[in-house]
Design a protein that fits this description.
This protein has 366 residues and is α+β, with helices and mostly antiparallel strands. The protein has 4 helices and 23 strands. The protein has helices at residues 2-25, 40-43, 91-126, 132-164, and strands at residues 30-35, 45-54, 57-61, 66-71, 78-79, 84-88, 167-169, 174-179, 186-187, 192-198, 202-209, 221-226, 233-241, 251-258, 271-277, 285-288, 293-294, 300-306, 311-316, 318-319, 326-331, 339-340, 353-356.
Amino acid sequence: MSSLRLLAILVLLAGLAGCGGQVETSETARPVLVVHPGGGAQAALSAYAGEVHAREESPLSFRVGGKLVRRDVDAGTRVKQGQVLAVLDADDLSLQAQSAQAQLAAAEADLVRARGDRDRYAKLVGDKLVSQSTYDAQNAAYKAAEGQARAARAQLDVARNQAAYSQLRAPRDGVIATRQVEAGQVVAAGQTVFTLAADQGREVAISLPENRIRQFVVGQPVLVELWNAPGERLPGTIREISPAADPQTRTYAARVNLVGDAAKAVELGQSARVYVQETGAEAALSLPLSAIQRGAGGATAVWVVDPRTGKVKSQPVQLGRYGETDVPVLAGVKADDWVVGAGGHLLREDQPVSPVDRDNRPIKSK
């Protein structure tokens, strides 16, 4: 009985050993997600963070100083051209206008007297009753009085203008973007009280890198994607580029003008991302970042599936500047190659795979 049991155990072990050898000789194909390299235009897009501004943003201030007695609007208020926004205490300005009015009246009275004296002396000098020099003195006094009257009239106009400057009015239709003062505050002439964002268009302010500033030109088409509307890209153009770099950030300020109805879809202060087509990069392909692997010798590579054998090969590639989700591939792959898009770190050279696309459909061998 012991001999039979020992024989049975030996037979079982031999069978297990045979089965183990069969597993080692036939490897199961690993399922992998494969993708074609993306189009060149998408790969050449560079993204820059920006913020929506009005094309015309005007700091509003009084032309005279004084105490602010009334503020009629606040940040976010829509205003019309000519609407009163704030008012200064105009008592002193009114008194100055009254003083200028009195000075004008006195100057005009002196002018009337001087004109009468000149006319009388003109008759007397004609009758040889006074000398010519006496008449010349009266004529000079008349001209001086005339000049004093003109100066007093100009001073009255200035005083009246300053009294009118006590009311701050909107220069155009728009919305109050910021408010810097409050009622009761004493403000100086030229001190910013409000910032008015006019309704004549919206733009996105961005900063362009110093090392690629020559790749951008005024009028270049771009795409604008709002932070609160991902995937929806609005058309725009680069309207202006600063001729000098910022001394702190070493970037060039630029403004992107939103085209057509795109300006109506944005609000002031919104975060946006501007996508710019880089010059000379139109032919580049692109791959997702998850497809990039480290090849032999530390070189950058990707796994390419051979459709005839169903095995993967490591293919060195030359890459461009990395983006948020993908990277341009300048050399190494073709547009019709099937590249492993994810999980490449689990593969090895000549490993059999079962490729599927993003819809989980098997890729047929050629």
